[in-house]
């Protein structure tokens, strides 16, 4: 079985187009478009029958569907974008939001705030992440974690066999005195029906309120990902994510806007975010109308997947455009000092690269990546870099062994500063 990917908060539309130009959402330069005039006609007819009266679909310079014209608000853009995907698939719809939106998300949010309502950050409206204080934090005081695993869903989304167990295995490692050595009361575990969007947001808020500058925070997510949204973002599907109408999947999942808001605001100077999630067509094949007619994207089958590149992660979630770390070579098995690595910063780990899926294993009874990452943590006293470097080649080998020699899965890591390596097992008070 397969899994999941995480998606996008924009610094700007132009940057997204550039990011996706060489990654999962783009068609190769010079490749003939699979989109025909009949497809465009079908999309524009769907627009009219769904109340989109002033917007229309055309081909962009890469042969993908592009939205043009005027749209009433962001929700209407989501509807148009989603309808386009149901005709030609996610790969053939350009992730560029139209310029001519009458009422943009930030304007709607401002109006709601002035009216006394709550309004969270919208995609593209979050403040940039500045360089921050480069004064190193003191010794780790406390450690907090949120661990989420969603294998069953309210909607007709394909079940993940081991996401629940992945989360429990991570939790067990973290609270083990011989493992992560987290206090049990400082680790929030949410699985299946308990992993609703609101429950996850409340857990993030609770950690944000408690964590101080000298603390360490770890977030772990194992689930499916949504299809790429109009910004190119793929978000984490929660237990109660809705799929009808189709664009609701973006509005009811855990967005990168929520994650980035947490990353910006949390005071802890040590933050590790682990995303064992990617988008794949097969996750939604039981949802009527979710995929293009004929059951697959144009020139793409059920194995189509979208993962995360390091540059994508740093740009979208950390706002750090100068540092993206490619997977390193395996680390020799030399013992580490009792203190472990003393780095700090914000680190993002993804189970797969752009254009890839994250695989589960019946042999290992886990996500392949999560299984080997835990082994790495145990073998290297919780050191993040060493655990990642241990897991990466084993994931590549196991995927090819189980799924086929032409199948790739390459875990990715990114950080906001060069001296980022830290240990999750270092003692906290």
What does this 3D model show about the protein?
The protein is an alpha/beta fold. It folds into 2 domains: 18-105, Histidine-containing Protein, Chain: A (2-Layer Sandwich), CATH 3.30.1340; 143-415, 3-Layer(aba) Sandwich (Rossmann fold), CATH 3.40.50.1460. It has 11 helices and 15 strands. The protein has helices at 13-21, 37-49, 74-88, 105-114, 163-175, 197-210, 248-251, 256-265, 310-318, 368-379, 384-403, and strands at 2-3, 55-59, 65-69, 71-73, 101-103, 143-149, 187-191, 216-222, 270-276, 279-280, 305-306, 345-350, 358-361, 366-367, 412-415. The strands form 5 sheets. The chain has a 6-stranded mixed beta sheet, sandwiched between helices. Strands 1-13-14 form a 3-stranded antiparallel beta sheet. The chain has a two-stranded antiparallel ribbon with strand order 2-3. Helix 5 (163-175) links the parallel strand 6 (143-149) and strand 7 (187-191). Helix 2 (37-49) packs across helix 3, helix 5 (163-175) packs parallel to helix 10 (368-379) and helix 10 (368-379) packs antiparallel against helix 11 (384-403). The longest helix is centred in the last third of the chain and has 20 residues, at 384-403. The protein is globular and about 60 Å long. The model is unreliable at 5-30, 122-131 and 330-338 (pLDDT under 50).
